[in-house]
Amino acid sequence: MERPGLIPDDVLQGRRPLLLRGLVAHWPLVAAGQEADSASIDYLSRFSREQTIVAFRGAPEINGRFFYNENLTGLNFERVNVSLQAALTEFRSLGGESDRSSVYVGSTAVKTIFPGMLDENELELDVPNPLVSIWMGSRARIAAHFDYPDNIAAVVAGRRRFTLFPPEQISNLYVGPVDFTPAGQVISLVDSQNPDYERFPRYREAQASALVAELEPGDALFIPSLWWHQVEGLDDFNVLVNYWWKGAAQAQGSPMDAIIHGLLALNGMPDAQKQSWRAIFEYFLFDHEAGESSHEHIPEGSRGILGPMDASTLKQLRTMLRSRLES
């Protein structure tokens, strides 16, 4: 690093995870957390605003694994609305007792609940409109999932273990429901601490490709878009600050919406027709080499929505989709 908190461009443009030891070790928030959990909470309280936030709370028997219930008809934890001050007070009482409930506050905008904190804990990040979120809580395990944006995750209190899988391992991770998820993203159903290889035999293949990183306070991890990652908080009190950002191409829309539309359009179709549609999808969306398009035989001015995506084309596409979905 040229100076603390500076991330080289080649890191941000990479397509593999990268551990960034000591990236935010100079932050006052990290120094407070290394002194004591109570010092970390005192520091956060300096910036806190009196408002209601959402927390996850699970019984002692979930052992910090925020997940589904046994038959996937519900969740093994509850979402509760609490005041920020009440949450910080509860964090002060966290300890290692086995009969203690798990509590977790995830993905909450730092500027909303701790205004001014980032002025003292700055990360130089030359990316468009990063969303800065904070994650706080007791020992917890969050199942493997992927995020659409690129991500810098910085550990500021406690230790965290990340287990990462390349995007192409999706078929070996046994993904759960799309329309009912614990926190908005599809997740792997495999319990990584006790894998059921009879039920999930291909998970061994995913494990063989996994990358594991254990982060100390002050360390950060770059997680490229679409990489699966499982996150474990290893200490009684853990705090993480992360930065999400989308590239220009990602800002055009969510491919998950296209998947949902695909499920609507292709569900129940005979296999032979599905295979034909697979070829059609490949042709229109993925069949290109070295920048050459499948549509170059069409005069450039006549390619319509097959051409470059400018603001006018994007508006035309959204109007077309809205009309088709409503018909």
Describe the structure.
It contains ten helices and 13 strands. Helix 2 (28-35) packs antiparallel against helix 3. The protein has 327 residues and is α+β, with helices and mostly antiparallel strands. The mean pLDDT is 89. The protein has an eight-stranded antiparallel sheet with strand order 1-11-8-13-6-5-2-4. Strands 3-7-12-9-10 form a five-stranded mixed sheet, with no helix packed on it.
Task: Jot down its keywords.
eight-stranded antiparallel beta sheet, 10 helices, five-stranded mixed beta sheet
What is the gist of this entry?
By secondary structure, the protein is α+β, with helices and mostly antiparallel strands. The protein has helices at 9-12, 28-35, 37-47, 84-92, 110-113, 117-120, 203-208, 255-266, 271-286, 311-326, and strands at 18-20, 52-58, 65-66, 77-83, 102-109, 131-137, 140-145, 150-157, 160-165, 211-215, 220-223, 228-233, 238-245.
Q: Secondary-structure map with pairings?
A:
Blueprint: H1 9-12, E1 18-20, H2 28-35, H3 37-47, E2 52-58, E3 65-66, E4 77-83, H4 84-92, E5 102-109, H5 110-113, H6 117-120, E6 131-137, E7 140-145, E8 150-157, E9 160-165, H7 203-208, E10 211-215, E11 220-223, E12 228-233, E13 238-245, H8 255-266, H9 271-286, H10 311-326
Parallel strand pairs: 3-7
Antiparallel strand pairs: 1-11, 2-4, 2-5, 5-6, 6-13, 7-12, 8-11, 8-13, 9-10, 9-12
